[in-house]
């Protein structure tokens, strides 16, 4: 089932979990540029047809999955390494 990525932030977002000092460092890092200049251009709609409208569980965020592939390729990471970064690296 296709479910577009929600624009609403989670209270578990890293910017809510770190000190203001670390938040400022995060805003000045590559991650902020990626969030502002790459993520908005990932259009999920063309992939809607690949998902059954009635059956199956909702998809994971297509933006997140494509972002992981971009970062994995850019940083020459294995599948396990990119998943570790996703789960444990703010």
Strand and helix map with partners:
Layout: H1 14-17, H2 20-27, H3 30-37, H4 62-75, H5 79-88
Low-confidence spans: pLDDT under 50, at least 5 residues?
Answer: none
Q: Give the overall shape, derived from the CA principal axes.
A: globular
**Main beta-sheet strand count, sense and barrel state:** none
Number of strands: 0
- Summing up helix and strand content along with how strands pair, one would put the structural category as mainly alpha
| Overall pLDDT | 80
Beta content comes to under 5%
- Summed up, the helix count is 5
Explain how this protein is built.
With 90 residues, the chain is mainly α. It has a domain at 14-44 and 59-88. It has five helices and no strands. It starts with 13 loop residues before the first helix and ends with a helix.
Using brief descriptors, characterize the structure shown.
5 helices; globular; mainly alpha; 90 residues; 0% strand
Write a brief structural summary:
This protein is 49% helix and 0% strand. It is mainly alpha-helical and 90 residues long.
């Amino acid at each position: 089932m296709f479910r577009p990525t929600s624009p609403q932030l989670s209270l578990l977002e890293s910017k809510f979990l770190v000190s203001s000092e670390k938040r400022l460092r995060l805003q000045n890092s590559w991650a902020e540029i990626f969030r502002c200049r790459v993520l908005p251009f990932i259009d999920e709609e063309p992939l809607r047809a690949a998902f059954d409208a009635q059956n199956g569980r909702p998809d994971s965020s297509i933006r997140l999955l494509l972002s992981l592939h971009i970062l994995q390729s850019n940083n020459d990471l294995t599948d396990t390494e990119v998943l570790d970064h996703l789960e444990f690296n703010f």
